[in-house]
Amino acid sequence: MDGNVLALAGGVGGAKLVLGLARTLPPDQLTIVVNTGDDECFHGLHVSPDLDTVMYTLAGLSNPETGWGLAQETFHALEMLRRYRAETWFSLGDMDLATHIRRTQLLREGRSLSEVTAELASCLGIAEQLVPMTDQPVRTVLETDAGDLPMQQYFVKHGSQPQVRSIRYEGAEHALPSPSFARALNRASMVVFCPSNPFLSLGPILAIPGVRESLAAVPNKVAVSPIIGGAALRGPAAKIMAELGYPASCAGVARQYQGICDYFLLEPRDEGLAPEIEELGMTPLVAPIIMQSDDDKIALANYVLSLPELA
Ligand code: GDP
Ligand code: CA
Predict the structure, then answer these.
(1) Domains identified in the chain and CATH numbers
(2) CA 238 to ligand 2 centroid distance, Å
(3) pLDDT, tens digit, 9 for 90 and up, residues 225-255
């Protein structure tokens, strides 16, 4: 695959395929755009959970057990915060806190989230372009039977238990794609929708005005389903889809990408849903989309990148 690849990602699921793409493509041919609808202020610090998951993954620093956070992390600062009766339901390790301290400091000095992310990523040896979806604040809020909950409160504090009635992306209507995202939208010869939560991770990116229209004009758009056999490998994606009235299946995911996606990769056990996906105007492709090892991630990335040549 020649040209510029634009990957859209959330956190843990997205980071897996992002790693495969980064190991396959020259760094200057990959722009990774990450959801910031989960960003939150904890202890006065700007935390960008999805950006950090992807950044730690690309830097080879992520915790292999969880997929988020850092390997060999300790939690002494959080323990002390607990003694001070601070709210500590969001797990923040000692090394992780350094990321948030530095990010917050640079933001306060007036730099944009794009600039700060580039600075942090370069310090960790990341050569790919890792960029936030926007430099403006966007907040994913779930309207639930327990009230309106920002994403991290729903997901971490409430353990994804409340029933979801609808989702809104606060601020998205005034947000602009970040400068690198806008450039990639203009130049990309391929777009990869990583296997991320379609409502909580890729939904906020697609809610930025103009993004869907720009994507429609890019050739070779490939999505990898995060839903397999009617369930998420991890996390609340299937639960939320069902509560919002969508089929909790890979076809339900495909519906979110109707009109902006050409190929849709599904797992062999979902083969029966291929006709439904075809009806949405995408080419369904059955592929091994469960990524356990780094080799799995690289193999899937190679397959995804080979698709335009098959066409
Ligand atoms: P989060 O922001 O950390 O919740 O991460 P994402 O939104 O990027 O990813 C969550 C989704 O990743 C879940 O719906 C999982 O089912 C999906 N996922 C995790 N691992 C894999 C995998 O190996 N293959 C596929 N296809 N999906 C995966
Ligand atoms: Ca996330």
Answers:
(1) 4-37+129-136+171-310 (3.40.50.10680)
(2) 15
(3) 999 999 999 999 999 999 999 999 999 999 9
